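Morning!

This is the sequence you dropped in the shared folder:
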Amino acid sequence: MERRIIRGEAPAKGPAVRRLVVDEGSEGQRLDNFLVKVLKGVPKTHLYRVIRSGEVRVNAGRAAADTRLALGDVVRIPPMRMEKAERLLRFARDDESDVQTPRRVQQSHPTREFPVLYEDDVLLAIDKPAGVAVHGGSGVSSGVIEQLRQARPGAKFLELVHRLDRETSGVLLVAKRRSALTHLQDQFRGRGVDKTYAALVWGDWPDKLKVIDVPLHKSVGPHGERVVRTTSADDLAGQRSITLVKVVQHLSGCTLLDVTIKTGRTHQIRVHLASQGHSIVGDDRYGDFAANKALARAPQGQPRLARMFLHARRLALTHPVSGAALEFASPLPADCKVFLGELEASARA
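The structure's back. Tokens below.
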């Protein structure tokens, strides 16, 4: 990537402020991943600290770690010495989940291919397993996109079209050309994409509850994590969020739902379902912690699940080049199928 300083700084001893212009190779990238790329070897715990403090700025304004960079944006990077960053890492608080050793940061990403649902010259649809982040950052050294790039060294362009939470499995799209990425992201923003999820929630979901139209407020927590909550309609920082729910099956103590989102807000399904008193089974952030713990540690012979039961089972959109209608489907993962079978058996017993 071309690094161009647009405001001259007089040479000085030691590190100086840098201002980098976002080029086509970094357009659409998250701010934290951009910094990892241009500041190779600097511990991520230090990068997140300077982002939270406001020392890193985009177009002279404060920015969050998940800010998406646009072509021509100016990123201000404060003075940083590698030795100082490494000392900060060694003495970082034990409870910071994004702490990693400098040696690990410098390691190459693992090579991994994922089950392919569809692929052509411009688009790749994969079946993402649960437990794998879609990209590196905030305690994750590499995700799906980094592993794909490592597995496909000849690919000139691979970028995520959208995101799934780390514990969510299912259909994930990757663009193989810049023009395809822009076209597909416009479809997502314009609500031209149909996304349906399979979700298992605690309790007996009311059959009549089919629409959740509640605004969501997103903020950044003390460690750079995303925090989402429902809010009121008069909250200026709230975003209108619409989720459609259909009951598929009532089970023993749980309900299997088909969930379609009309807006793609961060953690939308998880927060919306939990706000109705029926959190997703296995959700360790917005869920029933005691029930989830008991479920993961259930004795042999009783239903057990060690993940969040949320699966992106269907995604429909328009091909970015041909305009043809495309629909991708991902079957329910084996562990989820087994768990549903155990619940059904438990209900019959």
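Headline: The CA atoms of residues 41 and 105 lie 6 Å apart.

More detail when I'm at my desk.
O.
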